[in-house]
TrEMBL record, chains A, B:
Gene3D superfamilies linked: FAD/NAD(P)-binding domain, Succinate dehydrogenase/fumarate reductase flavoprotein, catalytic domain
Pfam families recorded: FAD_binding_2
Protein's UniProt name: Flavocytochrome c
Family membership noted in the UniProt record: Belongs to the FAD-dependent oxidoreductase 2 family. FRD/SDH subfamily.
Keywords: FAD, Flavoprotein, Oxidoreductase, Signal
Protein origin, superkingdom: Bacteria
Listed InterPro entries: FAD-dep_OxRdtase_2_FAD-bd, FAD-oxidoreductase_2, FAD/NAD-bd_sf, Flavocytochrome_c, Succ_DH/fumarate_Rdtase_cat_sf, TAT_signal
Cofactor(s) the protein needs: FAD
GO molecular function: FMN binding; oxidoreductase activity, acting on the CH-CH group of donors
Organism the protein comes from: Ferrimonas sediminicola
Residues covered by the FAD-dependent oxidoreductase 2 FAD-binding domain: 51-493
Amino acid sequence: MSHPHNTNPSRRALLKQGAALAAGVGGLMVAGPTIAAPRATPAPKFDEIFDIIVVGSGFAGMSAAVQAAEEGDKVLVIDKMPVFGGNSTINGGAMAVAGSDHQAKAGIEDSVELMVSDMLTSGRGMNDVEMLKLVCDGTAESARWLESYGTVWKPFVQHFGGHSLPRVLQTRESSGAGIIRPLIAAAKKAGVTMYKQTKLIEFVQDGQQRVVGVKVKSGYFFPKEKSGSDKLLGARKGVIMATGGFGRDIPFRQMQQPRLTSELDSTNHPGANADALKQMMLIGANPIHLDQIQLGPWSSPDEKGFGTASQFNTAATYQNGIVVDVRTGERFFNELADRKARAEAIMTRRDDQGQPVYPIGFTNEKGAAKAQTLEWGLKYDVIKKADTLDDLAGLYGIPADKLKAQVAQWNQFVRDGEDKQFGRPLMQAFELTEGPWYAVRMWPKVHYCMGGVRVNTHSQVLHLISDKPIAGLYAAGEATGGIHGASRLGACAVAEGVVTGRNAARSAVKADALSLKLA
Amino acid sequence: MSHPHNTNPSRRALLKQGAALAAGVGGLMVAGPTIAAPRATPAPKFDEIFDIIVVGSGFAGMSAAVQAAEEGDKVLVIDKMPVFGGNSTINGGAMAVAGSDHQAKAGIEDSVELMVSDMLTSGRGMNDVEMLKLVCDGTAESARWLESYGTVWKPFVQHFGGHSLPRVLQTRESSGAGIIRPLIAAAKKAGVTMYKQTKLIEFVQDGQQRVVGVKVKSGYFFPKEKSGSDKLLGARKGVIMATGGFGRDIPFRQMQQPRLTSELDSTNHPGANADALKQMMLIGANPIHLDQIQLGPWSSPDEKGFGTASQFNTAATYQNGIVVDVRTGERFFNELADRKARAEAIMTRRDDQGQPVYPIGFTNEKGAAKAQTLEWGLKYDVIKKADTLDDLAGLYGIPADKLKAQVAQWNQFVRDGEDKQFGRPLMQAFELTEGPWYAVRMWPKVHYCMGGVRVNTHSQVLHLISDKPIAGLYAAGEATGGIHGASRLGACAVAEGVVTGRNAARSAVKADALSLKLA
């Protein structure tokens, strides 16, 4: 065959037998081209049957699984990787919440409407507003729901870029693992079955095109596509796709954004590819905003992946420090702008040959107090320490007088309560008066896919033609498209994952249960 | 059935017979869910058979048809509308050409590389560079090819926004009809069959998933989806999709860009919807950049559609005049920037309630000399005439002293050879010294879809999974995605349509011809 084709397992098997089968059942064999046609065939015998199958075990997947199990359903979670959690365990574990107890304690008046408005601004108006409202509206309750399973938030609330006020909660561990681990424990306690190294190969659909299960490779060993053995898993109520983005799928991301070559690093885990997205598209899912791929503005070229700099810059330099061009010692953007604005600003720093001139972000001891990766960053030489601004300038070849002038100007802005250079909000800002200083070189990395499949507010995947649900198919988290528009705000992926994962589960739980047959 | 499904004609017919058929051929009828599966069935009997079927009759479709017929193939062109030509007859008929005879005569040194570079800049680096080179490289030869069929270019070359020098040829008629009419005549002379009111419903694929024809509604009357009768048309070598964009498909464009509501007008013809794109996606075509939808920056809110202002602004105010904010009398962008930059600049002009404050573009008698729609625009009161700048200011409520100061400043820039405000290229600029003045209010309209299906340099549509060609399926023109990236430059759609249409035809002509059967 000259190219792969869009079939479900039994279709593919039958295609292979092709003419023989046709001849066998009705003597219809003909010469020349033939037309592939569906027919009613026996229901497959499934190796195992569940009410709900969740594909993926990150924030969205684990939230869906726990929610569905809480409501009494028999749930399976599969993940193709040898560990659970995907990208959700290798990020900062920060969740934007509108109206948290933490905000109330800090005297910060927030609202769902304000969070929606911030996300719309960052999304350049491309957001699916109904889904966006659903997410923002669910954050406060979902943050408490996570706490009830054991997530512990730091006692303070943070001000991330693009948010108009401090609204970010962060796990005690500064890692999404502080959410995933408790959810996995809760899932196991609630009787959820969890299979790792189990990769979705194709959907199984019935004669009415309802998704009734998945064909998987069991014992799959990423990235060996031929590893593992076939299994058919039945889902009486539906399949929830919590399969994340494709930030590490270099060919696929380059089809949409040719500049995102292999030379640009990514914060994602190696399995973050487009395989699951493609399977959804093959059965009619409608892809939205696939070319909107976020670059994280807080990463460092001096280490691989998410590393130590991302958390350091998020918690320290962006909130409590400044970022300067090493050639001039001058700031060149609002350090609390949204990610797209910051990443694009950083990537303008190039020499005459177009090669990156990495800017540095820095803060002092007080500013770095809440950065949990400081020690590791220093150890790996990603973060550098300098006692004085002169020393700092020397480390990076910055004109010392200009650097000192910039810091003095910044301090004046803080005293005046207004950033006259770039309009940065100064609610939590303080003057940078004394060392030691901590600095890191910065360059963006591929971080998050705003694009994905179109869903409705019941988290049902909508069909390209009808814009009505593909029966039995739900999606949540990064696998969906449209919520964030052109640029996701920081800490809104955890919010989206948890809220939409639970939303998908609530919808699937209510679906009619089909009667499927075991092998 | 709860939602439409992805089937070809015979699959759909068989689905309807469902269980009955299964029982009939093999006694396999079962209770409960069943799995749709393909099987080898008799080849369909086609109502008519051609070598190549071209869907769409704009620049790409007609170029493909003429090219294929020139090479001796039996060609059918279908168009769903009651007239041929689609958007290609309701635009300015301007074609960007690198290295034209017109440029040589005017002493303008251009190159394919420079045109590629201009388009990459406008496309924000999102362009498919190989396809882009193919298009630019083919422009000079294709412009002569059009001439050979009767297209007559104006004797001068124009400087459109975003191009770094004058390279735009325009038909004598200032309309794409000056290209489409000669091509239709050439097609008919070469024996091409042409059916209008014939809508593609689905592709017909053989057992190897090769596209072998199309199911159409013959006698279709747009937009009545139930009009017309079914026909199966066979294509021994392949189907070329020259089906344009979806600028008038309000639900579909809003899925990607919620702001493009029905309140935003479009320059496109009413049939410019996503139906054909969706059919390609259903058989595995890979959609690229669907959210990149261009707003034309030269249209007027004072008339519907492309109207008279678009040509006037393109040929007159943008090349030979200036655009000002009516509240200040001041310019606010480079009038020769690319379309995205200009449209976005214009759409920043809003009042406190966010309502548009339409800027005006204006020039004088000399500047308007080449605008063929001037007379009509004046007649319909879209273009207004004023003898003096004071009168002009009075017409639009502009502070007269400020308007005069802006014109004086502009004239100084022209004398200095440098636009110190916005860096506009001044190669063809002249001072605006005397009236009468001609002005038009401006607001963007939905104009062009940069997005579409992914193709290779043989114009073969590539499959989502394999990134290899879907056998028998070609695409050209606006139906494809990636060539223009984030923003198409003016006059590059004609270039793309003609060059890629011919390219698709050359590829399809070389394909093996299947032996298909007539009914």
